[in-house]
Amino acid sequence: MTDVFEQVEEELRSERWKRLARKWGPVVGAVLALALVAALAFWGWDSFKTSQGEKAAVAYDRGMDALQANDAAAAEVAFAEAQKVGNSAYKALALNQRAGLALQRGDADQAVELLDEAARADRDPILADQAALKAVWILMDEGATLEDVEGRLEPLIREGRPQRVLALETQAMARLQFGKTAEARQTFVQLQLGQDVPDSVRQRAQIGIAAIDNGTAAAIPNVLRQPVPAAQPAPAPAGAASAPAPAASAQPAPAQR
User: Fold this and answer.
1) Is 18 part of any domain?
2) I want to staple 188 with a disulfide (CB 3.0 to 4.6 A). Which of 41, 66, 208, 241 is the partner?
3) What is the pLDDT of residues 194-212, one digit of tens each?
4) The domain containing residue 19 runs over which residues?
5) CA 203 to CA 211: how far, in whole Å?
6) Taking the model in full, what pTM does it have?
7) Is residue 126 situated within a structural domain?
8) Could you tell me if 190 and 168 are in contact, meaning their C-beta atoms sit under 8 angstroms apart?
9) Domain membership flag for residue 90
10) Tens of pLDDT along 118-167?
11) Contact assessment for residue 134 and residue 96, using Cβ atoms and an 8 Å cutoff
């Protein structure tokens, strides 16, 4: 009897497994197929990104070599390629280099545009904030308004941002440039007393405070607004005939009465 019961139980288990297989077999098969497709897609995407990263690294290195050789045209082509095929980090780095090349050409507007694009290219604040700060420095040289400068600096001076100290120093210098000496001094004091401030920045803050206190900093805006003196003609060589004096403007003869 025991053998009979065991045989019946085994047949029941077999039949139960068959029913489960018929019911869930297609579902399990579909899930396994999807998992296989996802794994292959991930492997393909990872391989593609690795390949693109290697291409970007090669192009970026080629651009740096061209810079060392003073070949700006070749560097521009190489960095543009690295920007196109690289990941977000390589894109940000390549855009930074292209901005430097634009600045060398005297195109400050394009340099700022490229740096703004670099700041948006990568979420890493180390790269993004560095590019944003460089753009502010260029704009300060190009005569941007204090509102524009401080608006760009506002996100960079928040707690925890990697370029906060340099952004605060830039803010103080911008305020000095526009005659806001009291506000500039307040920022310099913040840098002088702040923690995790590099010694070089702390020393420059102390110099800025001293310049404000002794009144020399007040002359900075006037100095920056002074027009560049016109170039004077070189003196004529000895023995050369002197140039004729410019003729006086002809005046109309007085009317005869």
Assistant:
1) yes
2) 208
3) 888 999 999 999 999 999 9
4) 14-105
5) 12
6) 0.66
7) no
8) yes
9) yes
10) 999 988 899 999 999 999 999 999 999 999 999 999 999 999 999 999 99
11) yes
